[in-house]
Amino acid sequence: MIRLNTLTLQRGPQRLLDGADLTLHAGQKAGLVGANGAGKSTLFALLRGEFGPDGGDCSLPADWRIAHMRQEVNTLERRAVDYVLDGDVHLRRVQRDLAAAEAAHDGTAIARLHVELDSADGYTADARARKLLAGLGFLASQMELPVGDFSGGWRMRLNLAQALMCPSDLLLLDEPTNHLDLDAILWLEDWLKAYPGTLLLISHDRDFLDAVVDHVAHLEQRKLTLYRGGYSAFERTRAERLAQQQQAYEKQQAQRAHMEKYIARFRAQATKARQAQSRIKALERLEELAPAHVDSPFEFGFREADKLSNPLLDLSEGRLGYGERAVLQQVKLQLRPGARLGLLGPNGAGKSTLIKTLAGELAPLGGELRCGENLAIGYFAQHQLDALDPKASPLLHLQRIAPGEREQTLRDFIGGFDFRGERCDEPVLNFSGGEKARLALALIAWQKPNLLLLDEPTNHLDLEMRLALTLALQEFSGAVLVVSHDRHLLKSTTDEFLLVADGRVQSFDGDLDDYARWLVDYRARQVPVNESPAVGDKTDKRAQRQAAAAQRQQLAPLRREAEKLEKELGTVHEALAALETRLGDSALYEAARRDELRERLADQASLKAREADLEERWLVALERLEDLQRQLEEVG
Hints:
The protein is α/β, with parallel strands linked by helices. It folds into 5 domains: 1-53 and 170-229, P-loop containing nucleotide triphosphate hydrolases (Rossmann fold, 3-Layer(aba) Sandwich); 70-168, no CATH class; 239-285; 313-525, P-loop containing nucleotide triphosphate hydrolases (Rossmann fold); 538-635. The protein contains 20 helices and 18 strands. The protein has helices at residues 40-47, 80-85, 89-103, 107-119, 125-135, 152-165, 182-194, 206-212, 231-266, 273-285, 351-359, 383-386, 394-401, 407-415, 433-446, 463-475, 487-493, 512-525, 538-583, 594-635; strands spanning 2-11, 14-24, 29-34, 55-59, 66-68, 170-174, 198-202, 215-220, 223-228, 313-322, 325-335, 340-344, 366-371, 377-380, 451-455, 479-483, 496-501, 504-508. Strands 5-6-7-3-8-9 form a 6-stranded mixed sheet, with helices on both faces. α5 crosses α6, α9 packs antiparallel against α10 (273-285) and α13 crosses α14. The longest helix has 46 residues, at 538-583. The radius of gyration is 31 Å and the shape is globular. 32% of the residues are buried.
């Protein structure tokens, strides 16, 4: 188990934990929550052994294997699949030792290392790494690319895959969903639910926490409090505790006021002096109960637009994409005041393309886009964080778009986004991603939009800010079109979903649970993003199912062949492992057993030849299967 006993952690002058206690048993899955800067990541570093506690004890089993998601990438030349395999350090060591033993023709070492390789599931490692990459959204062709070819967000996915690849007893994940889309998050949920070890997870995604963890450790006021259940249960339990604390506080204040009144009245009277002194001591001993500060540091709203148009925006027969390449075809979308739309769809299907077109960043390749006379768009996307002036403060950013406004009015407004005091006047150069996102949202909120186009607005935002944004969107009277992997935000702020897939934008008749099931079917069909399927009535859906069944029928023989070869290969691997165990017996190398040794080595050579043949045939079968799948997709 993990046991923290009266733990004190300090970074520079700041004390992050002071006398904190926590016990996590093996196999438990806990979410670690708390304000930004409270010390969550520092606690992870302590558990990884990067430094010791400043006071108290931190203990966990000495033989536990710890895996964590790195935040940096320093091997840009490695193939993506090899980079993920590097996460299994023990496997890589065995493979290196085996290569050296084979080069030295050391039969004893070869036999021993093959046994180790088998116990480390080395024969299935490549397939497992590719399965992890596929679940996180990588195409088969991308798995062969060097790490340096990927953007920062996709490199973080590689780091996550590497952490999942590592066999572990304790898995530490710090914001693993930050760079994932909804599809990958749903896959990761299933993976973590099946993870047999102990999990400690930092996340600002409440639905993700609810799905994965069975406890929540709350870091607040330099203490750790463990709650049973997911994040929703934590919120309910904590709210009840704070309500009780508030009642106790109010009762204490009344008691304190009565004591102070008594002291003030009788302190000067000799006959009452002893009673007054006893009240003073009791007052000093009285436990200091902090008021229940449940208010978020964020309090803001989107300023109401002066005028509205109806419709605000009308796109008909839209052909959308980049250059000459169309991503979406025949898009018809009309946005009216009060519309609340969430965009769903696989990664790369065209959600951001649609939003960029509506925002005016991309011109339609075809069709007509008509904007209302009074249209005022508030557009949020991650690239806008980089467009902020690094030398300007939050206040100066706001003053530039509101030059005639009183400074105090602007300070009050930006304070609702938790830019207060000195932070309001500091340049954004060293701001975190969350602070930059808050500033970008503040600039949008000030400008009185009547249409909000939000592309992943919750990236880098903590739970308190996500809640404040949710409340602000609920009060917003204009139209909202949002892409987000935060399911709580989608469920709380949208009335309708649009599905972006297969080159089309269409209404999605269902909720997020229905979408999760749709995704499973979509992945099974392996429909390419740019395909144009028949949609709409029952006949079209039946045709889709029939086409999918026909594809499966064509693929079945090749898939059976690949599975048969893989099974035979597994049998050969088992026979080789058993044989090499026998070859590891030092007595076999005695002179009296020379003939037996010769037979065993001949058997080994035969099995290795059989193994090489099966591996080659299996890879060819897989390649043929992939080629046929690709051909079917192109024809479809």
